[in-house]
Amino acid sequence: MKITDLEKNVGNFNLKIDDLYIQPGLIHGLAGHNGSGKTVLLKLIMGILNPDSGKIDLEGIDRRNMTMMSQRPYLLTGSVYDNIIYPLKLRKIKPVESKIDELLERTGLLAQKNQYARSLSSGERQKLSFLRAIIFKPEFIIMDETLSNLDPESERAIVETIKGIQQTRPVTWLMVSHGQDVREELCDIIHYMEKGRITDEVVKG
Amino acid sequence: MERIADWFVKCFTDEAILSAIGVTLKMAFFSCLISSVLGITAGLLLERYNFKGKKLIIRINRTMMGMPPVVAGLVVYLLLMRRGPLGMLGWLFTVKGMIVAQALIIVPIMTGMVHQHASGKAPAIREFCMTVGAGRWQTVWTVLREMRHDIYFCIVTAFGRSISEVGSVMLVGGNIKGKTRTMTTAISLLKSQGIFTEGIALGVVLLVMAFIIQWLCDFLQKEESADENN
């Protein structure tokens, strides 16, 4: 994915990305203080916001094969299970129950499988949002502070799941995380943002 | 106690009363159905798209929401009268004409309510749909599904409004016994004739209906509060 001369004004905030290349199959991290423009950039990439100018070249990636987990995930009315299978239903894919149970077990949500999704805690909601995002095997996954409300055990489970996915079929990830340890453990490239600009880029040795 | 029971039996075996109940329900059902289709569509489209003059349309709709029913009745009367632009339909003093008048009152209410609910909820639902790769119609379906409690609430409110209306149905329907007489217009006529017993019986039926509608509204609002997406 190649981003060139991208500009977006949101109120008084100005985002300007001259050049950003997201390499396929790698985990990209996005770091920066609150209000540095990370979420705006992610929403532009996802197509939720339209740029004022500039170009986002998806290089052949179908938007339907992209997904984004937001800081406050929207949960559908219904159970945890209903939420997880929703992307599969959209694609008329029959859910594999054993696979779903395995993912729920791994993230500690199996006991809540039939629970009303909106009764979950914020951490559980984020885990559900993560499972719902990976269930349909997208090519490009955007995570906006999805790990922020998780306890260390759950965070580890998610990190290991991401590593597992990368070993079997490399997916392109773009993740915002304030946790330096997670970033350093997972990310191949970290882009630093400040006041709506990419200020630095660190490639893991 | 026995006398009250006898009185109720007498009232509810009276053909004129049964006809008024039937006309009221028929008129309320069809006007509600038409208003739901038009109002829900208009409310959702008004929320979804930004265009020049949108604020003006919202303002006009809000004005229409407060339109006195007799004014709506008068407008429909003028449209449907023999020399009116729609006189060839022959709908004046028929239930069809009353349905049109009711729809004219309810559509703006429905549009305004759906627009209000959708403004608060639909953007987040659409954004979510985009993040899971839903297509256009899948997104529309998801918005409708997620907003179903709000929509039910609007429909129930519209139905309540429809059964309790007097002014416009009196003008357009003409309050013809056994044909266009509704419960409310019958009560109005019975009172003017000094016949209170049948009027009270119809009033009781209307109150029972209002109670059921109120109960449905409460139920839907309770469902809604359990749905908080915090």
How does this model look, in words?
The complex is a heterodimer of chains A (205) and B (230). Chain A is an alpha/beta fold and 205 residues long. Helices cover 33% and strands 27% of the residues of chain A. In chain A, strand 8 and strand 9 form a beta hairpin. In chain A, helix 2 packs parallel to helix 4. Chain B is mainly α and 230 residues long. Chain B has one domain: MetI-like fold, CATH 1.10.3720.10. The longest helix of chain B is centred in the middle third of the chain and has 37 residues. The relative contact order of chain B is 0.15. The chains are: A alpha/beta (205), B mainly alpha (230). At the A-B interface, strand 5 and helix 2 of A face helix 5 and helix 6 of B.
CATH superfamily of chain A: P-loop containing nucleotide triphosphate hydrolases
Strand content of chain B: under 5%
CATH architecture of chain B: Orthogonal Bundle
Helix content of chain B: over 70%
CATH C-level label of chain A: Alpha Beta
Q: Can you tell me the number of structural domains of chain B? A: 1
Q: Helicity of chain A, in percent?
A: 25-40%
Q: Globular, elongated, flat, extended or rod-shaped: what is the shape of chain B?
A: globular
Radius of gyration of chain A: 17 Å
Head-to-tail CA distance between termini of chain A = 22 Å
Helix count of chain B equals 10
Q: In CATH terms, what is the fold-level topology of chain B?
A: MetI-like fold
SSE class of chain B: mainly alpha
Terminal CA distance of chain B reads: 53 Å
The biggest beta sheet of chain B is recorded as: none
Main attributes?
heterodimer; A: alpha/beta; Rossmann fold; six-stranded mixed beta sheet; three-stranded antiparallel beta sheet; 6 helices; B: 230 residues; mainly alpha; MetI-like fold; 0% strand
